[in-house]
Write a structure and sequence with these properties.
heterotrimer; A alpha+beta; B alpha+beta; C alpha+beta; A: alpha+beta; five-stranded antiparallel sheet; 14 strands; C: alpha+beta; Aldehyde Oxidoreductase, domain 4; seven-stranded mixed sheet; five-stranded mixed sheet; 20 helices
Chain lengths: 289, 161, 763
């Protein structure tokens, strides 16, 4: 591994100062499951690593009013074991749970997954589908932004120098609102998503969809919020024509590449398949909530 | 670049070491502390041969910096047995011939022990998914799963379940 | 002596705990990268980023000036070796090629080819120093795939390669190193008699053995040239021989010590790092530790060959195959030496055929030089042949097992490559598969069942073993084969059986090159057979000595002593009434009766029995995604005699799982510049625990009478059938015939869409 400097600030302000004042490239370390891999392969060459895990509150889940507030460096294993969050947003928890192995789960965080800005990130579609906002600390104080505004392209974020994510504010679900996340991988585990799909729906008492968000991963440079897919669901029950319209909308939104994980044609077809299957699960859960 | 001084607990013992920032926990264990039981198979978190337990969770020590161990509680393969008393997982691995070359074995044993610390009643499928991050090329996983399920049953009996 | 009567055995056939097991489960066993020495330096290899390039200049001066760097080597630090076939090792090997593979000379022939190496006081400094080495390349056009490499205008790798086995001798250099043929009978006549002819083309991609332990060694060269090498390899004698040759030193000056080995499967039957570390240690005067990263393992070490398999089968409507033709084109990687020979020889070995013609091509291209991988060559050709036999069965409307039974090789069958089979168990494996409960389980929607058979010769070869009686009557066994699958337990078991003492009283050791006689490497499924034979013979010699010592103690003739249950007895009342003597009783008096009681045996074991297998694989397909789930796998194999049944089962289950990975997801992916894109376990996808079901390993025992216990090799056969078994199961499930490996989801979905195009939403 190439040589690097390391700091572990114990407050948000100290972290901001260090990041803002860094002379070379500074990278935030949460779980390290992306950062250390990239450091080792030489893909990134930072001068300074800033470990945020010693900042009080950066790890942990709490309920605050109408939100679940998840500390940016909270590892996946804590998300899975939080019964309230798991009941409210099983899709978010599923997505986070699918990032890598059990060992990766012991470290990987929502902030890391989001800021690594891989189009195939497993936790991101469901987080965005839930209309999550992130709280960002920086030289100009704290600001909030929708989760979908963070990734601007593969490996690129909208965060400025000195900024880092402190927490995720996930709105609590309404009655008959729930989500699901599915991904396709060639094996049964351990692969990067070839396609990922997060679906979040709200139903009325009769089972008709009144609100929806459908988010696709790994089919474009960033995750895609598929407006037409939401439109296909809203006002309908999940019958055959709705599913077909959903499938078509999902496929139409794809702008994937052919790479070592999948071809354009295949990703597009499977996006439709996953949209249908994730919607079915989300509808079933929403009806039961 | 100066070294960092780290104070931590490994296998129940207080440990201090010096390391450079870029040295991973795996590097520190193997090269600074002589604990070569944890293995380097890939250095990218994909094979699990470096698995340790950190503050109760299994992690890949190749994806953790040595400096991050400050104040934490670390368990490695060397800490799974108690003196000359093997953990049931270790004993069952031997009885079921769940190892051939033995290279993936330390990581697997640590991961399996952690599974049984969370539940004594895993299904075969649950165990397979829990252990999916531990690659084995020799055994085809069959005898490994049999060993883990058998260890679980022994531990259930010991716990009076 | 013969120990073929299973009922009389007390130790062999049981399942004791392996003697090296505890060390391995507590993390104390020492693998290649676990060794250290005071004053040790860390080394790192610099590798070519180009698939094909002339090396014009290497400037190491900046690297040498970096503080902490003590030595840099390039090809200039190695003797320039002439063309010479190797006298040791598995598979075709040329010392000149091996030397150039360890350190490129004149040309870089693949992305990852070693061009220089550095030794420094820390790994981080060695890494930095590599970046400071300036290499001037002239990038050349490259070629990756087999058929592209055979095309007339393909970039040529070696200007001195002219295809061997072709008449008239070619005058233009080629990427085809050789052409070989095997012929039996008259295929023109055979095809003329056929009532049905099937002709198909199949392909496989190169796959890596993917052992979890990367290559690693620690080498120390003293100022007088005496060298000690610790490395994990499949043969310390091979390591010694190769290093001696590549560095130009006497073998007596090298002591190669086998570390525990974390998987090999054939991929560690040659050297990559040891000669380089040796050159660095010689230069710096310090011990040098050199370890590969996982990325280097993929970019720089030899995979199994890939290639094309063209099969033509002619049969009667009854199912009797009357003609078989095969053309194999295998990739050798950057230097000649693919296993196309064994691929040709094993392809039809399961069948009793009168008319056969097989052609094989060994083709070089700009990828790592291939190394052996479990039954080298056979899995590829069997994928083609066993898929084609299945297609034939479907065409004829005959059950695939019945078709195989009808044409099965049996005792007395003359193989297409020459020898006549004797004491083989192929029919028994078919019978056992047919009668297995798994074969009768009904299948649901999108589920299918596939059958495939396999064969591997297994080899014997040179082995040495020594058995020593310790003063307290316990026994030490020293043998020379790195233990990759539990073999040292079997050695102790066989010795214990012969001596008649408990297994725990016999401790086996894998000795280094100075501690045991020459032993051929661990490979070819030979260890239990050949080294087991040597151990057995040495134990028998010890028994003879024990009897004669007892005779001396009793002052009777040695012929009047018999050995039973670990003790010497007078043979009958006339010999005298003496209390039996145990090993301990005799050993304590050994000084007075003639000296230490010990025997060493060196043999060239002949009579290795070939192995056959029949596999049954059940799959379930997700039609929309092309995902294949393996539901059930039954692997029936003739194992001769299972010395330690658990480890025999383990070989079967491990080989099956490797075959499933080869079938479904493993492949090398290159970009347009010939650079490897998936040099890691993330995107080189081997099966994980959740991908596999339990694997039913069914051991059929048809003893090999040429081995004292009836053993035959078992390790390689299991990888031969799975790819075809999976392909045949997929065809059975959804009617999609996959002929190009891997059968990954996008490819299966594409084939399914052709069979049954998806309806568009608008309809």
């Amino acid at each position: 591994m190439p040589r690097v400097n390391y700091e572990a600030p114990t407050s948000v302000d100290d972290a901001v100062k260090i990041l803002a004042g860094a002379s070379g490239l500074a990278k935030v370390l949460s779980g390290g499951t992306d950062l250390l891999v990239q450091l080792r392969s030489g893909r990134i060459k930072p001068d300074l690593i800033v470990d945020t895990k010693r900042i009080p509150g950066i790890i942990g889940i709490r309920e605050e009013g109408n939100f679940f507030v998840v500390g940016a460096a909270t590892p996946g294993v804590m998300l899975s074991s939080n019964a309230a969050l798991e009941h409210a947003w099983p899709g978010i928890v599923e997505g986070a749970d699918l990032i890598g192995s059990t060992q990766i789960q012991g470290r990987a965080s929502l902030a890391g997954n989001l800021c690594n800005a891989s189009p195939a990130a497993d936790s991101v579609p469901a987080v965005i589908a839930a209309r999550t906002t992130v709280v960002i600390a920086g030289p100009n104080g704290k600001r909030e932004a929708p989760a979908e505004s963070i990734c601007t392209g593969p490996g690129r974020t909208s965060l400025g120098k000195g900024e880092f994510i402190v927490e995720f504010k996930i709105p609590k679900p309404k009655p008959h609102q729930c989500d699901a996340y599915l991904r396709f991988i060639p094996r049964t585990e351990m692969d990067i998503a070839v396609v990922g799909c997060g679906v979040n729906v709200t139903l009325d008492a009769g089972g008709t969809c009144t609100d929806a968000r459908v988010v696709l991963g790994a089919v474009a440079p960033t995750t895609v919020i598929v407006e037409d897919a939401a439109k296909a669901l809203i006002g309908h029950k999940l019958d055959e024509p709705t599913l077909a319209a959903l499938d078509a909308a999902a496929q139409a939104a794809c702008k994937p590449i052919s790479d070592k994980r999948g071809t354009i044609e295949y990703r597009t077809k499977v996006a439709g398949v996953l949209a249908r299957r994730a919607a079915a699960i989300a509808f079933e859960r929403a009806a039961a909530r | 670049m100066s070294k960092h001084h780290v104070t931590t607990t490994i296998n129940g013992e207080p440990v201090e070491y010096l390391c450079e920032a870029q040295q991973t926990m795996l590097d520190v264990l193997r090269d600074e502390l002589g604990l070569t039981g944890s293995k380097e198979g890939c250095s990218s978190g994909d094979c699990g041969a470096c698995t340790i337990i950190c503050d109760g969770n299994i992690v890949c020590s190749c994806l953790m910096l040595g400096v991050e161990a400050e104040g934490r509680d670390i368990t490695t393969i060397e800490g799974i047995a108690e003196g000359d008393k093997l953990h049931p997982v270790q004993q069952k691995f031997l009885e079921h011939a769940a190892l051939q070359c033995g290279f993936c074995t330390p990581g697997l044993i640590v991961a399996a022990k952690a599974l049984l610390d969370t539940t004594l009643n895993p299904t075969e499928e649950e165990a397979r998914y829990w252990l999916a991050g531990n690659l084995c090329r020799c055994t085809g996983y069959d005898k490994i799963l049999r060993a883990v399920m058998d260890a679980a049953s022994v531990m259930r009996a010991e716990a009076g379940q | 002596m013969s120990y073929l009567d299973k009922a009389a055995l007390k130790v062999v056939g049981t399942r004791p705990i392996r003697p090296d097991g505890v060390d391995k489960v507590i993390g104390r066993a020492s693998f290649g990268a676990d060794h250290t020495m005071p004053g040790m330096l860390w080394a790192r290899v610099k590798r070519s980023p180009y698939a094909h390039a002339r090396i014009l200049k290497i400037d190491t001066s900046k690297a040498e000036r970096l503080k902490g760097v003590l030595g840099v080597v390039t090809a200039a630090d190695f003797p320039n070796i002439a063309n010479e076939e190797a006298f040791v090792g598995e598979g075709p090997m040329n010392f000149r090629d091996l030397s150039r593979n360890c350190m490129a000379r004149d040309k870089a022939l693949y992305d990852g080819h070693a061009v220089a190496a550095v030794a420094a006081t820390s790994a981080a400094i060695a890494e930095e120093a590599c970046d400071l080495i300036d290499v001037e390349y002239e990038v050349l056009p490259h070629v990756i795939d087999v058929e592209a490499a055979m095309a007339p205008n393909a970039p040529i790798l070696h200007e001195d390669m002219f295809t061997a086995g072709v008449e008239p001798k070619p005058t233009k250099p080629s990427n085809v190193a050789k052409k070989i043929t095997f012929t039996k009978g008259d295929i023109a006549k055979g095809f003329a008699e056929a009532e049905v002819i099937i002709e198909r083309k199949y392909s496989t991609k190169p796959v890596h053995q993917a052992y979890i332990e990367p290559h690693a060694c620690l080498v120390t060269v003293a100022p007088d040239g005496q060298t000690t090498i610790w490395s994990s390899s499949q043969g310390q004698f091979m390591v010694r021989a190769y290093c001696a040759k590549l560095l130009g030193v006497d073998m007596a000056n090298i002591r190669a010590i086998p570390a525990e080995i974390g998987g090999g499967f054939g991929g560690k039957t040659l050297v990559y790092l040891e000669p380089v570390a040796m050159a660095l240690s010689k230069k710096t005067g310090r011990p040098v530790k050199l370890v590969m990263s996982r990325e280097e393992v993929f970019r720089g070490t030899g995979p199994a060959a890939g290639g094309t398999i063209e099969v033509k089968l002619g049969a009667k409507k009854s199912g009797r195959i009357v003609a078989a033709e095969l053309v194999l084109k295998y990739q050798a990687g950057a230097f000649a030496g693919s296993p196309v020979g064994p691929g040709c020889m094993c392809a039809f070995a399961m069948y009793d055929l009168d008319n056969v013609h097989i052609t094989g091509y060994d083709v070089v291209s700009n990828r790592p030089k291939v190394a052996a991988y479990r039954a080298p060559g056979a899995p590829n050709s069997s994928f083609g042949v066993e898929s084609c036999v299945d297609e034939l069965a479907r065409e004829l409307g005959i059950d695939p097992l019945a078709l195989r039974e009808m044409n099965a090789a049996r005792d007395g069958t003359k193989t297409p490559y020459g020898p006549t089979l004797v004491n083989v168990g192929y029919l028994q494996t078919i019978e056992a598969a047919k009668n297995h409960p798994n074969y009768k389980i009904p299948l649901g929607p999108n589920q299918g069942r596939g059958i495939a058979s396999g064969f591997w010769f297994n080899i014997g070869g040179e082995s040495s073993a020594s058995v020593h009686v310790n003063e307290d009557g316990t026994v030490a066994v020293v043998e020379g084969n790195p233990d990759i699958g539990g073999s040292r337990a079997s050695m102790a078991m066989m010795a214990a059986e012969v001596l008649g003492i408990p297994y725990e009283k016999v401790r086996p050791v894998v000795g280094d090159t100075a501690s045991i006689g020459f032993t051929f490497l661990t490979g070819g499924s030979r260890v239990t057979f050949a080294t087991g034979m040597a151990v057995t013979q040495a134990a028998e010699k010890v028994v003879e000595q024990l009897k004669s010592r007892a005779a001396a103690i009793w002052d009777i003739s040695p012929e009047a002593v018999e050995w039973r249950d670990g003790k010497a007895f007078p043979a009958g009342a006339n010999a005298g009434s003496f209390e039996p003597l145990s090993l301990a009783d005799i050993a304590i008096k050994s000084g007075r009766t003639g000296g230490p009681i010990t025997a060493e045996v060196s043999i060239n074991a002949q009579g290795a029995g070939p192995g056959f297998a029949t596999h049954v694989c059940d799959v379930e397909i997700d039609r929309e995604t092309g995902h294949v789930k393996v539901l059930r796998y039954t692997a029936v194999q003739d194992v001769g005699r299972a010395i330690h049944p658990s480890y025999v089962e383990g070989q079967i289950q491990g080989g099956v799982t490797q075959g499933v990975g080869w079938a479904l997801n493993e492949e090398y992916i290159y970009d347009k510049d010939g650079r490897l894109e998936n040099a890691g376990f993330l995107d080189y996808r081997i099966p994980v625990a959740s991908d596999m079901p339990m694997i039913d390993a069914v051991m059929v025992e048809v003893p090999n009478p040429r081995h004292p216990f009836g053993a035959r090799g078992v390790g390689e056969v299991p990888i031969v059938p799975p790819m075809a078994a999976v392909a045949n199961a997929i065809a059975d499930a959804v009617g999609a015939r996959m002929r190009d490996l891997p059968m990954s989801p996008p490819k299966l979905r594409a084939v399914l869409d052709e069979i049954d195009p998806p309806r568009m939403a608008a309809e």
